[in-house]
Each structure stands twice: as C-alpha cells, then as structure tokens.
Amino acid sequence: MKKATTEFFAKNVARYVVVTSALVWTTACTTLQGGSSKAASERSVSETVLTQVSRKEALVSRHDRSYWLDMRQSKKLMPKLAGALATGEGEASVQLAKAYLAKNPGDVPAMTLLAQALAMTRNYDLADYYAMLALKKEPGNAAALNIRGLAMMLGSNRTVLDYHKAQNYFRQALDAEPSHVAAGLNGGHLALELGNPEAASALFQQVVQRCGDCTPGLMGWGVALSRTGKHGEAASAFEKVLAKSQNNPRALYNLALVYKNGYNDGKRAEGYLHTLLDSSRTKDVALREKAQTVLRMIKGEAAREERTMIADDDDGTSKIPAAGDTKSSGDERDAELLMTGAEMEDK
User: Fold this and answer.
1) Second-level CATH architecture of 26-180
2) Which of 27, 52, 174, 249 is the most exposed place for a label (fewest CB within 10 A)?
3) Per-block average pLDDT, block size 10, for the chain (347 residues)?
4) Regarding the domain delimited by 196-328, which CATH topology (the fold level of the hierarchy) does it fall under?
5) Does this chain's domain 26-180 share its CATH topology with 196-328?
C-alpha cells in the first residue's frame, strides 16, 4: 500500500504546474545583498530583484528585458550573472556562478544564484546542495529555502514525505521574506496537486496580497477557490485577470468552467469559450482542444473519454514534468523562469 501511494503522488505531483500563459514557476527571487562585491557596478546589482523572465520577454519584472540584456554585457561577473539569469540563460548562468565562486569562495549570494541557475537547468539535486550551503551561512535566505522546496518536490526518487517537506520549506521561505512570493505560488500548486485546495487558497491569497493582484497569484487563487466551491469568488479572481489582460486564454477557460460546473450556466460558459477560440492570443493548441471539448460537453456531444480527460484536468493547467523531462508544453513561453519577489508587473 505504501508503495502504491508513493507512486500515485509521484505520478500526480511530478508534472507541470502552470499558472498563466503556460508559464512554469520554478525558482525564486533573490536580492543580491552583501557578499564580497566591491565594484560600484556590482553593488548596484545588490539593489535589484531578479524576476520572472521568459526566453523572449520580461513577463513579471521590476526592470524590462533591455535592462537585463545591458547587465548581461557587463565586464563584472556578478552583474553579468544576474543578467544571464534574468534572460533565461541557464547553462551560462551556471558557468558564470561557478567562475564567481572560484574567485569568491563561500559567497552566499553567488551560491544562491548558482542554486537558482541549476534549478533552471533542472539539476534539482545539485541545486539543493548549493541551497543548503547558502542556508548554513544565512538561515533565513528565502530564495535558498524555496530552492530546497523545489528540490524536495522535483528531485530524483521523491516520496510523499518529501512533498510534505517541500511544503514546509515553501512556508519557511514565505515567513523569511515579506516580499517573497515564489514559494507561495509553488506551495499553492503543490497543495492543489496533493488535494488540499483550502491550503492552496490561503497561500495564493497571501501571494495576491503581496504582489498587488498579479496575474499568477489571481489565477492560482481562482482555481483553488473554484475547487473549494467558492464559485463567486473564483469568478471574481478570473475577471480581475481579464480586466488587466483582455482575453487572457486561461482566465476565459476557467471562467467557462466556473459557470458550467458551478452555476450550470451553459450559455454563459459558451460565451467565454467562443471568445477564447476566436482570440488571436490563444496560441496554446492543447487549450483550444480542451475548450472545444467543453463546448461539445455543453451540447451533449462529447465522447466519454473526452469527458474523463476534462474531469482529470478541470482547471486547464498543464502539470510539472518529472525531473529530466525536457519536453515543452503549450505555447513556447513555457521556459524555466526566475520568480519575482517584490514588484510584479503584467506585461
């Protein structure tokens, strides 16, 4: 029985957890504080916050992508490393962090950034090692605590106990830094996967309060609320997303599910689904197929296997891949990202 339970959770947790626009939330924000940086350009980096950036554009950022591209050209290692991380260059970030640590052994910010870079390349076990080293010197390092949580969730040969350890690390990260939100998003999605939407709702609500109604927080909160039966509040969360991001595909899809499943209002649900399918913003082929399936369900035309598929994935999100799985999901902005910690702006 124990083995079967472990296999069940491994199958269902080690999949994509996606918030909005098929984005994978992986690592945490980090403020580059202290350390052995001496140059003025390196000290200026210590005043910034690395935030979520995809392969092609800044999605949630205190600075736009051009800022980080300029930083990437710096002759100083730490700014160069920050720029590489923020522009999604995982392998380059790993090499730059190692080069900096070779010159500055034991530097906590550099070890934290190396842990993030390794997580970005999905080397979670080694990322965990460097996160532990950083925490030995700086026990309240929120970014390192979040990396430990990710390693517990996505590393090799994980068990149900490890998933609960991950939840504890995410909680510690949130408590350690008032502006930190990455661990709240990670912990919220893990709670959903473990079948605890009430806990997920509380975590996403905390994220929303910290990030000022940011889209990732609202999307997660809306899904958690819908799973607890609070359909009105869930609809409100998704509508807030649409107010800031017109025709956001996943907000439209989830609103359709709220009205179909929560209020049995097929006509209202059809309206949201048609808007999704007619919008040029909907690039995700899988989401389009799900929307079409839900339309057929409303009309009583869906096959049994289609109804089962929708029931198993009722909020339209993809899942976290097992460690080492390099296949992409949904639209091409599903890159491994850096998570925001302070000011979140929807682009």
Assistant:
1) Alpha Horseshoe (1.25)
2) 174
3) 46 33 29 32 32 38 75 92 85 95 95 90 93 97 92 88 95 92 89 94 94 88 96 98 94 96 95 96 92 91 67 52 35 27 31
4) 1.25.40
5) yes
